[in-house]
Fold:
Amino acid sequence: MWDLEAPPWRPFYQFSYPQAFTYGERKSSERNIAYIRSQVVGRGDWPAVVPTQVVWGFRIELRKARPQAENHKKGFDLDNAAKAPVDAFCRGLIERHDPLRERPEWRPLALFEDDHIGQVGMLQLQGRWAPPSEGSETKVSIYYRPA
Structure:
C-alpha cells in the first residue's frame, strides 16, 4: 500500500478551512478555488522555498455537517471534493483565474503546471458525515517526492 507518511514522500504544507464542498458548476468552482487560495495566503506561512522536479501528493480529509432536515435527500459526492483543493495549486489555473495579475499573492502557490498524473502522483481522500453541531471542515496535507 502506498503511504504519504512513508519515504520517498516528504511533508510540504498543511492547512484546513471550515467548509466542505464539491467541484460544482464553473462559477461555483472558481469561487471555491479562490476561497482556498485566500485561506492559504491569509495564514502567512507558505514555505519560502518550493521544491522543483518533484511529484506532488495530496491527502484530503473532510467532515461534512449532515443537514438537519430529516427529509433531506441531497448527498455529498466525496469523489468531487478533491478537485478544488488540488486545482488551487495549479499554475495554469492560477493564470487563467487571474489574467490581469491582480492577485500577485496567488503566484507563489503554483506547485505544478497541470494536475496530470506526472505532476500529481497520489491523492488520498476520506470523508465522513458529522452532526450539524460539529460543522464542516476540510484538512489538506501536501506532500512531495523526487520525480
In short: The chain has a mean pLDDT of 90. The chain has one domain: 10-146. The two ends are 19 Å apart (CA to CA). The chain has three helices and four strands.
